[in-house]
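User: What would this chain look like folded?
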Amino acid sequence: MKTVVEMPMETASEEEVIYQNPLLFLKIWEICSDSPHHGLSEKCRWHYHKEVEFLAIIEGRLGIQTKHEYTVIGPGDLIVLGSSQLHRTAKLDPGRLRYIVFQVDLSQHFDQSTMPYLHCFSELTQPLWKLNYIFRDNADARQEAYALIMDIFAESQSRMRGYELAISASIKRLMLLLMRTDTEGVLGGVEDTELTRLRPALDYVDRHLSEKIAVEDMCGLLNLSYHYFIKYFKKVMGLSFVDYVNYKRVKKAERLLLTRDLSIVEVGFEVGIPNMAQFYKLFKRHNHCSPKEFKQRMRGEAGVGVSEAAPQA
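Assistant: Here's the prediction, encoded as structure tokens.
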């Protein structure tokens, strides 16, 4: 892996990532090129997407240019690009180039027990591309991360029963690996005392999801001013209080859809969103499908298609 000087940048485009499985919030595929041509081209234009991207090289060499640096990686190497990070890639040699592109919305892979760690990957203070020093300096971590990405790719191709569990577990192992090998503190962390201070508010949200929950109620509960509370909550949890409450409502709705014989309207009332238009909009924002589609997919009544198109890395 080699890093050289920053290079100039042209117009960039935002890329919409079409998830292979909308319930896993990811797309992973292999790019293989035998073309003798190499170097930056129109096909490798500047682009960005909200998903975090990992590139893992199987064969050949790939150049990755960002706003800050230009990096060359070869077989067995990988690189991470943060959410909405501008980048473009280039084939460097005339021979074969094979690599895996893994795009994932990491924020969707946190559940109630792991929410305190969302802050580490939210990129509020440090961009995730700074974690590439791990892959450059720690051979063991690089090999383990590479193997996890290959496992995710293999599971996505085989689609054997339970492949969703296998992929979800590998994603969590990948995040855990990055946290435990981040000796430079890029991911930071949340102090137990900070979580303890917020615990009354978090418990209140859990108990009152079916009701209206106001920021002012939390301020009174914790004896904090409005502006201090909203800043402090986002610092500790990695997302705003409103987004946190909406996240909890959607997660409860998912559980109700799969475990209770309730109508969509009844589920909306149970999670404190009686306005159906608002409920559908919020649910679709988190799951990229309607509540009905979610229920069908999770219960196996409708298959999840795999996108045939392979967008650029």
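The domain at 13-181 is CATH 2.60.120.280 (Jelly Rolls). If you want, I can go into more detail on any region.
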